[in-house]
């Protein structure tokens, strides 16, 4: 279980997140939606300990991570994976080495076993015969998938996705969404997906949380979410409808 | 007006001090991680990558330094009948000062900027965050190998450059100024002590440290965006060169 208790985050004197309270259950897929600059990425970076809250508590299981040292945080991070907005693959390594990275860093697994897992995870995200290629030879969609393969290579319990489908065409977006659902079912992970694509959110999520100018204004199941009478929420749904009608 | 000026100067000084403090902290973290989990393959690949790249420019720099140094001094020394000191003078000048400082400056331009460009690109593309998310300490993974590589490569390049420089001097002394090769070599034997070389090498080790830590610091703290990479590399080169000159004066004072 992930629990945020009264979390605030400021950069300098600019408060980006105000008093966030949120609980994410084990095995659930939560979508975090919100406009550009509303603080979604910041929220995700807090959860994985890349930045620290100005105040409040962040619980991952029964560990409060906001005051841990970097070394202690690393122990918690072994159970988490993250897919970055721009994939963040190590561009000096092959795709295979990218996926194998965590295994090689943190285990003494024999090379054969590492190769097997790399192959398996790449297959899981629908990629074949790319292990020897360099990241800059791949398309954006392929990079995202490699990034996902890398994130799940270490069998995490929680996977964070920062805009997994931004910048991709609608078909690839749907594929990535399927992949997220598929990963969730195959590995029974907790997934937290940041997106500004309402359609995606509805497809993959159990619950949706909406961030608006640094505040969490609504958290609910997909069905209930559509009926929330808040114009800021409705505005988001409205974009979805206009897209569908078009 | 005056108050405003003072305020500006104050703010500038504060920023520099803050920056200096952060650099010292980064240096401390690097030293702490030095023993943890050594990565010999990374160190070697950095050494070959950074060292081989600089070999040619180091050779050229020191070769021509030896050449012009001899051109400028040989005539005068011959006029005073001191041709028997030329080899020694050149070797001491190069071994103690010119070798380490010029190699340091060249490496600041070549190696330091390469380090900054690589690390800042990694930062901008969130690769450093990716390292941290995968529970790998970026200081250990990125900075320590570069630091060790620089501490080894810069001294090696310095010794190499020293030899090339003295050789350049020899060519001019023998083929232009008409001093016998024996005399040149003999004066090196007579005047030069081992410490003229090792002192320079000690300096080079410090310069290697400076180049690595500044290269990494400006890489890690580069401004966002693509133009940030360019800005960061310029900062590395400028600050490293200044730091090398200041450090050199201090080291000369202590060592000799
Ligand atoms: N390191 C930082 N320093 C200063 N301000 C920051 C920093 N990171 C984020 N911010 C600010 O925090 C606000 C929220 O940023 P965040 O990246 O979380 O937005 P977002 O919801 O992910 O937006 P997008 O959909 O565009 O990715 C922005 O106004 C941004 O300028
Ligand atoms: Mg974002």
From TrEMBL, chain A:
Domain ABC transporter: 2-238
InterPro entries associated with the record: AAA+_ATPase (IPR003593), ABC_transporter-like_ATP-bd (IPR003439), ABC_transporter-like_CS (IPR017871), P-loop_NTPase (IPR027417)
Superkingdom assignment: Bacteria
Signal peptide: none
Keyword annotations: ATP-binding, Nucleotide-binding, Transport
SUPFAM superfamilies according to UniProt: P-loop containing nucleoside triphosphate hydrolases
Any Pfam family hit: ABC_tran
GO molecular function: ATP binding; ATP hydrolysis activity
PANTHER family registered for this protein in UniProt: INTERMEMBRANE PHOSPHOLIPID TRANSPORT SYSTEM ATP-BINDING PROTEIN MLAF, PROTEIN TRIGALACTOSYLDIACYLGLYCEROL 3, CHLOROPLASTIC
Protein name: ABC transporter ATP-binding protein
Organism: Selenomonas ruminis
């Amino acid at each position: 279980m992930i629990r945020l208790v009264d979390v605030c985050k400021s950069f300098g004197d600019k408060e980006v997140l105000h008093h966030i309270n949120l609980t994410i259950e084990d095995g659930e897929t939560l979508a975090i939606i919100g406009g550009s600059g509303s603080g979604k990425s910041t929220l995700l970076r807090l959860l994985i300990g890349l930045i620290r809250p100005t105040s409040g508590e962040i619980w991952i299981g029964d560990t409060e991570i906001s005051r841990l040292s970097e070394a202690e945080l690393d122990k918690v991070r072994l159970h988490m994976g993250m897919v970055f907005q721009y994939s963040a693959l190590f561009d000096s390594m092959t795709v295979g080495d990218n996926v194998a990275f965590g295994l090689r860093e943190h285990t003494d697994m024999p090379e054969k076993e590492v190769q097997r897992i790399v192959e398996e995870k790449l297959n899981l995200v629908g990629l074949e015969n790319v292990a020897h290629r360099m990241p800059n030879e791949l398309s954006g969609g392929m990079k995202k998938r490699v990034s996902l393969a890398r994130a799940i290579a270490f069998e995490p319990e929680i996977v964070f996705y920062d805009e997994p489908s931004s910048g991709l065409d609608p078909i690839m977006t749907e594929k990535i969404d399927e992949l997220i659902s598929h990963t969730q079912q195959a590995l029974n992970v907790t997934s937290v997906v940041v997106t500004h694509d309402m359609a995606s959110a509805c497809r993959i999520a159990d619950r949706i949380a909406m961030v608006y100018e640094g505040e969490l204004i609504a958290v609910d199941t997909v069905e209930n979410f559509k009926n929330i009478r808040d114009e800021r929420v409705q505005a988001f749904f409205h974009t979805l409808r206009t897209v569908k009608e078009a | 007006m005056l108050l405003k000026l003072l305020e500006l100067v104050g703010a500038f000084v504060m920023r520099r001090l803050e920056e200096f403090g952060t650099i010292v902290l980064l240096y401390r973290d690097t030293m702490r991680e030095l023993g943890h989990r050594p990565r010999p393959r990374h160190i070697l690949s950095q050494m070959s990558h950074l060292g081989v790249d600089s070999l040619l420019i180091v050779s050229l720099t020191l070769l021509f330094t030896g050449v012009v140094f001899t051109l400028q001094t040989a005539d005068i020394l011959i006029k005073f009948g001191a041709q028997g000191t030329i080899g020694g003078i050149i070797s001491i000048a190069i071994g103690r000062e010119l070798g380490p400082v010029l190699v340091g400056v060249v490496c600041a331009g070549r190696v330091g900027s390469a380090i900054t460009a690589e690390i800042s690109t990694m930062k901008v593309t969130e690769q450093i965050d990716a390292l941290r998310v995968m529970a790998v300490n970026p200081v250990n993974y990125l900075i320590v190998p570069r630091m060790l590589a620089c501490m080894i490569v810069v001294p090696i390049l310095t010794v190499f450059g020293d030899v090339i420089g003295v050789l350049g001097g020899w060519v001019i002394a023998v083929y232009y100024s008409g001093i016998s090769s024996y005399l040149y070599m003999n004066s090196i034997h007579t005047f030069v002590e081992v410490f003229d070389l090792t002192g320079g090498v000690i300096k080079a080790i410090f310069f290697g440290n400076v180049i690595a830590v500044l290269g990494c610091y400006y890489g890690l703290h580069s401004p966002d965006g693509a133009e940030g990479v360019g800005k960061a590399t310029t900062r590395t080169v400028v600050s490293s060169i200044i730091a090398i000159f200041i450090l050199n004066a201090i080291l000369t004072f202590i060592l000799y």
